[in-house]
C-alpha cells in the first residue's frame, strides 16, 4: 500500500534521502515549484502536472501545490538497536507512550532530528499513524530519523535496561527538576500522551522521573514543546 506525502519541504527531504518515490503531482503554472521540479527530474521521477482541483481531491491539507506517492516508511525492530547501544558510550533514545496527535508526533520527530536523537521508539498501537500529515508536520525530518516499532513500550524498556540505558520519564508531578538533573550518557526519555501523560504502569518502570519547571500560570507544556526542551538540555549537558 502506497502513502501520499505533501508540501515542498517534506518532498524535498524525501528526495534528498533517496526515498522511493513513485510519482509526483505538481500544480500547473506554479513558478515557485520550479526548483523542486528540477530536482525531481534529475532523479528521473515521474511527474504529472495537474490542476489544483486534482491535488485537493488527493488531500485537503495544505499541500503547497505538490503531492507525492511513496512506499510506506520502514521502521526497525529492537534487535536492530543492539549494536549501537552496546558499542557506543553515549546514546539518546526517545520513547513515545500514547502520542496520538499527528501534528504533535510530527513536531516531536522534527525536534528529535534537530537534537540528534539516535532512535525514536514507538508502540505498535496507541500512537499517531505515520502518514502524510506526520511527514508534513515533521518538515520531512522523519526521513532523517531512525524509528523503531515495538509491540509494547514495556518491551523496549526491559530491552534497554539490559544494556545499561537509564529510563527517564517526563512527568509533571515529578520532584526532580530537569535543570538540576544529570543525564546518564546512555538515556532513553519517555514522553507521554497529550492528556494523561505516561501510562502509570510504564511510569513505574522508569529509573528516574523529571519535570520541567514552569513559571507562568499554566501547569503544563504541549508534549512536542516539552520534548524539545528536554532534548535540548540533554544535548547541552553532553556537549
If you had to describe this structure to a student in words, what would you say it looks like?
This protein has 239 residues and is an alpha/beta fold. The protein folds into two domains: 3-70, 2-Layer Sandwich (60s Ribosomal Protein L30, Chain: A); 78-238, Alpha/beta knot, CATH 3.40.1280.10. Helices cover 33% and strands 23% of the residues. Helix 5 packs parallel to helix 9 (223-238). It is elongated and about 55 Å long. The chain starts with a strand and ends with a helix. The model has no long low-confidence stretch (mean pLDDT 94).
Helix content: 25-40%
Low-confidence segments, given as residue ranges, are none
> How many DSSP-defined strands?
11
Largest sheet: 7 strands, parallel
Order of H and E elements: EHEHEHEHEHEHEHEEEHEH
First-to-last CA distance: 42 Å
* Helix/sheet category: alpha/beta
Query: Remind me, CATH topology of the largest domain?
Result: Alpha/beta knot
| Oligomer classification | single chain
Number of helices: 9
Which CATH class of the largest domain? Answer: Alpha Beta
Average pLDDT level:
94
Shape: elongated
**The CATH architecture of the largest domain:** 3-Layer(aba) Sandwich
Q: From the alpha carbons, calculate the radius of gyration and give it in angstroms.
A: 19 Å
| CATH homologous superfamily placement of the largest domain | SPOUT methyltransferase, trefoil knot domain
Strand content: 15-25%
Q: Strand order, biggest sheet?
A: 7-6-5-10-8-11-9
- How many separate structural domains? 2
Detail the topology: elements first, then pairings:
Blueprint lengths: L2 E4 L1 H9 L4 E7 L6 H9 L3 E5 L1 H7 L7 E5 L11 H6 L3 E7 L4 H13 L4 E5 L8 H6 L9 E4 L2 H9 L4 E5 L5 E2 L8 E7 L7 H4 L4 E4 L11 H16 L1
Parallel strand pairs: 2-3, 5-6, 5-10, 6-7, 8-10, 8-11, 9-11
Antiparallel strand pairs: 1-4, 2-4
Helix pairs in contact: 5-9
Amino acid at each position: 500500500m502506497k502513502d501520499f506525502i505533501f508540501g515542498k519541504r517534506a518532498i524535498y527531504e524525501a528526495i534528498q534521502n533517496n526515498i522511493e518515490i513513485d510519482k509526483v503531482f505538481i500544480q500547473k503554472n506554479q513558478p515557485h515549484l520550479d526548483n523542486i521540479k528540477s530536482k525531481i527530474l534529475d532523479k528521473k521521477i515521474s511527474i504529472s502536472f495537474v490542476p489544483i482541483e486534482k491535488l485537493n481531491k488527493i488531500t485537503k491539507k495544505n499541500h503547497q501545490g505538490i503531492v507525492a506517492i511513496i512506499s510506506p516508511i520502514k521502521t526497525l525492530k529492537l534487535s536492530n538497536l543492539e549494536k549501537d547501544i552496546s558499542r557506543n558510550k553515549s546514546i539518546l533514545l526517545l520513547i513515545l507512550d500514547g502520542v496520538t496527535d499527528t501534528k504533535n508526533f510530527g513536531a516531536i520527530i522534527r525536534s528529535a532530528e534537530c537534537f540528534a536523537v539516535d532512535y525514536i521508539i514507538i508502540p505498535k498501537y496507541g500512537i499517531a499513524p505515520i502518514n502524510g500529515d506526520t511527514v508534513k508536520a515533521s518538515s520531512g525530518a522523519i526521513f532523517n530519523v531512525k524509528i523503531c516499532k515495538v509491540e509494547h513500550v514495556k518491551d523496549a524498556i526491559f530491552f534497554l535496561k539490559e544494556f545499561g540505558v537509564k529510563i527517564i520519564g517526563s512527568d509533571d508531578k515529578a520532584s526532580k527538576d530537569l535543570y538540576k538533573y544529570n543525564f546518564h550518557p546512555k538515556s532513553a526519555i519517555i514522553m507521554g500522551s497529550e492528556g494523561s501523560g505516561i501510562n502509570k504502569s510504564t511510569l513505574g518502570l522508569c529509573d528516574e522521573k523529571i519535570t520541567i519547571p514552569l513559571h507562568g500560570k499554566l501547569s503544563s507544556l504541549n508534549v512536542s514543546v516539552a520534548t524539545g526542551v528536554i532534548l535540548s538540555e540533554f544535548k547541552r549537558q553532553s556537549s
